Amino acid sequence: MSDGDGSGRKNLRMPDDDEVFAEVTEMLGANRVKVRCNDGVERTARIPGRMQKRTWIREGDLVLVSPWDWQDEKADIEHRYESQDADQLREEGHIA
């Protein structure tokens, strides 16, 4: 039983220096999605092969992306958060 002391908190994967939080806004097909990043930029993100069959990504999901160095409007998805993990990040103030 939890008495509200935060004991249900999980240690979640946080962004590295070159990664930002993003929300999936649109499915584009061909392993690509449109994401709105926390830095205010809307990017086309690529779902890497290692995630295609194992991790289902849908509109509204919270993901970690790493923007491309040479093309800022594109990015690669690095991680997808479960809905309860996304709620925890919002409660802790990491994302709006």
From TrEMBL:
Entry keyword set: Initiation factor, Protein biosynthesis
CDD domains from the UniProt entry: S1_IF1A
Keyword Heme attached: no
InterPro entries (alphabetical): NA-bd_OB-fold, RNA-binding_domain_S1_IF1, TIF_eIF-1A, TIF_eIF-1A_CS
Residue ranges constituting the S1-like domain according to the UniProt record: 8-82
GO MF entries: translation initiation factor activity
Function of the protein: Seems to be required for maximal rate of protein biosynthesis. Enhances ribosome dissociation into subunits and stabilizes the binding of the initiator Met-tRNA(I) to 40 S ribosomal subunits.
UniProt family annotation: Belongs to the eIF-1A family.
NCBIfam families: eIF-1A, PRK04012.1-1, PRK04012.1-2, PRK04012.1-3, PRK04012.1-5
Listed name of the protein: Translation initiation factor 1A
Organism annotation: Halobaculum roseum
